[in-house]
Each structure stands twice: as C-alpha cells, then as structure tokens.
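User: quick one, fold this
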Amino acid sequence: MNPRTLPKTHLLRKNREYQKVYRSGKRLRGDCFSLIYTPNGLDTNRLGISVHGRLKGAVQRNRIKRIIKEFYRLNRELLPPSMDIVFAVRKGFAPRTPAEIREAVAPLVGDTQAAAGSGKTTPA
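Assistant:
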C-alpha cells in the first residue's frame, strides 16, 4: 500500500467510535478547533472529523473536511501513533490549505509528544 494514500481503515466511521473518543479522550485546544485523542490498540492512528453545525453552508463544511483529510494524509507522522483522533472544528475555523492546519496543529501535538516521551529524535 502506498504510504500517501488514505484508506477508509484510517478513518473513524461509526458513531460508537466517535463516542468512545469523546468519552475517554484527552483534549488539546487550538484556536477554533480541538483535537481529542485516545489510544486505539491498533498499529495506526485513525482520524475523525467533526464540524460544528453553526458553520453555515454544506459547501464550506465539506471543504474544511477535505482540507483536514489532506492534512492528515500528508502529515500522519506528526500525529501520535496508535490513537483515535477527532478533529473538532468550531465556528471561525477557515483554513485554506493543509499547510495552515499543520501550522496550527504542530505546536499542540509537539508538546504532547514531548510530554509522552515519544522517543522521536531529530537527525544530526
């Protein structure tokens, strides 16, 4: 399998999967979005996207979802492994590119990985 594809197995699809993350997950709050994550016991992480209904217009909500999926597809290594992650979007979040999402998420996730001792090292 190509590492740059996004198979459906890497996405949360059922309501009970989302509810498990909401109930037992830890939250990282960003500007107009939150990342909620919990261990999943799998070899890979899975992504779920929740866009608040107050964000008017299906076109705008679906565009945000596409951009978040593209961010995830290109930057899976940035997110903690073996986690179910829900990207919850609130009103006011309007990224135009996956790079903008990376800039918003990287500081949050970097702090979490450092605290968890992820063991990632930078090459010399």
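User: anything notable?
Assistant: The longest strand covers residues 33-39.
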